[in-house]
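During the reporting period, our protein records have gained a structure token line. A sample record is set out beneath this paragraph:
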Amino acid sequence: MSERIATSPVVAAQRERFSASRSALPGVGHGAVARRREAGMARFESLGLPTRKQEAWKYTDLRRLEKLGLNGATAPADAALPEALRAFVPAQGPSMVFVNGRLRPELSHLDSLPKGLRLDGYAAALEAGDAEVESRFAAAADAASLVELNTALVEDGAVLRIAPGAVIEAPIRLVFLTAPGHAAVASHPRILVLVGANSQATLIEAYHGTDDTGYFTNAVVDAEIGDGARLRHYRRQSEGLNAVHLLNGSARIGRDATYDSFTLSLGADLARTEVVATFTGRGGNGHVTGAYLADGARHIDTTTLIDHAVPDCRSREVFKGVLDGKGRGVFQGKIIVRRDAQRTDGYQLNRALMLSRTAEIDSKPELEIYADDVKCSHGATVGEIDAEALFYLRSRGIDERAARAMLVEAFLREALEEVADEAVRDEFEAAVGLWLAARHQEG
């Protein structure tokens, strides 16, 4: 083992946790699961944490993670929730609530689920020997180091199944809350989403935590959208001020299926959301969009890969960010068009609004095209508040501070127009409004 890996406190802490808990982890009674966990930890130790020497991590430094002082401890699943986190517990509708990475049934709504919807805890599915879950868990080998770490240490998560032809009207909510107490802890939730052919559903995935203690969330999300199905997948990340949030997501989009996603990132000290969307059938539509807001010294990284592996598919990728103080944004978006993926239509745009001279954005849009009958474009713009628009508002008696806030809000509302579900859009606009109000008070 190399010196770098041997001396990494994060690797050492997670190895310590694995050694102490391996016999109690869900599914270890099933040989394939146990072997996959062992292989996951071994590969994580071999690879170590990603570093800036790797091209995909060139702009994001995980040394902030090492500063958390993780010691391998596990936070209690029955931790009392502070009032600030209780506000995120859904009052009704199909939902699963997790505290410190594990399901809390008493906070969830799992009774009287709509016809065609099945929700299971990931831990329960592994323990029960669910063949579909177990095969997917055991088959995913040679993944990125953080996915391997999740595989080794996942304690719980959600398995969401939509039956073929079902139309689920109510949004399905998966809420992950972290209340670690006095010590920094790590959780590794996992979500499996299986959307049957010709079905429709809306999934809202949310991550929230407290500001008083640092913690680490390392999530993995795997979605399969069947032929002719439509999944609206919305994600909100508003972790605590001292948290590190890393998420690896993947979606496979079937024939004539639609994957409509939006990620709102406005929390954590360091956050990275990585999404890979792959078209597996002709006629697919993929919308991978989002907004990110970073102030203080926050670092928010959005990394995406849209893989046009088959012909006649369309993708739209739009991300917009607002950066203030010493906040730093990263956007790495890549569209691949395979040799046989003729008649591909791909669009990609990243726009960033800089509110201070010390804010920073690294934008890296990419097109990799091997087919000749395609329509693809990409772009990136970075700018400050429009001086003419600011002058116009001030000339009508609005003070500069309020005028700037209005222009920022207008920019963000434009970004949120990518959210197709009106109720979710309203919810996200309210969250953005709270972020802007907090900035206004601090300013």
